Amino acid sequence: MQTSRHPLSSLPRIGIPIRFSSSSDPDPRVAEANELFDYIVELVREGGGEPVLLAAAPADGGRLEAELKALDGVVLPGGGDLDPGLYGKEQSAVCYDVNRSQDQLDLAVARQSIDAGLPVLGICRGHQLLNVLYGGTLIQDMAPGTVVHNEPAPVHGAGPWAWHEVQVQAGTKVAALYGSAAGVTMKIASGHHQAVARVADGLAVTAVAEDGTIEALEDPERWVASVQWHPEAVELSAEERLAPFRAFVEVCRSRR
Q: What's the whole-model pTM score?
């Protein structure tokens, strides 16, 4: 049985690395990502957790280590593209909002959280970041016309999403986040132009779109899981948005 980090009456403390990019950036995707970040923070709170924003520079290892010791779990949110140099590629012109400081913070938080045994949930960029951290690679720009290409679709309400179905495998961590042990088929909000290319050793694919895009990954040995889609999309019902965050908070509570 793990030793409790906090009094049992306290809320599970969920770390979320801050975003460094400004919403005043001329690329509208930056402001959209920052808005989604705010939604994630609020959903963690509504799900019964205490959001803790992580801002320690990776060079300040002692501070980051101390912050992580006081946590019960971590969410890695969406945002701009990772530096392709992290997975051995040259950066192409299609990459946007590449921020080395953001990469360093997110990777340090992810690496140290996993080493500490904290539950980790990656969302969109966080999904891609976990694959790169474990040694995988990314597609720098998906071909136009694919099911999940970042274009609006007149399905499931408004919003800058491509909506499509995914089948999440039974018995996986992501299926459990959506309240099913037997797997689940659902319509999800995709908004990305990059995706997982080579899956890292140590990660298992747990959901795939019909065009082959890898939609969910997990570490079979640890509570580490990720989704390429956006469970925080406001076009979803309030309960659909909240359910996976509430479930993740409960995972973190149970593993104290």
A: 0.91
